[in-house]
TrEMBL record:
This is Histidine phosphatase family protein. PANTHER family: OS09G0287300 PROTEIN (PTHR47623). Signal peptide: none annotated. Pfam families: His_Phos_1. SMART domains: PGAM. It comes from the Bacteria. Substrate binds at R58. It comes from Rhodocytophaga rosea.
Amino acid sequence: MKTLYLVRHAKSSWDDTALDDFDRPLNDRGKKDAPLMGYILHQQHILPDLLLSSPAKRAHSTAKKIAKAVGYAKKDIQTNKNIYHAGPGQLLEIIQSLHSVEHSVMLVGHNPGLTDLSNLLCRKHIDNIPTCGVVCIEFDIEKWNQVMPESGRFIFFDYPKKHT
């Protein structure tokens, strides 16, 4: 059994128009939403074996805030530059390349790739994963390279506005 948590980065700031998209930080709402979602995941006893993030500032900041809340060591967060701007096919390849020893993986990234990936992996259609939204999908497999389209079972979909 493998469990995948798809996490869209928290709300980011557009205040500094000179900043490259990659370097945009979280805004005030994002700085509140990421720990909130981390707390909610912690309350459900969710602690991933691997936390994998886009290296973009807003995604990595989200990953660090969630890691702190769930008890995952921030120094163990791995980044993969291919997550940034990845489509569902590229994200699927990243997942399929994961080590089998990791049973639960949290992937922090961006839309539209994450929403498209969620819809590719399970039969539950989601229109949009909002900022800091989390989709949990389980797979009855032993190795990540066995993840295929529609092979996942939708477990839950949560996001900050459900709790405010």
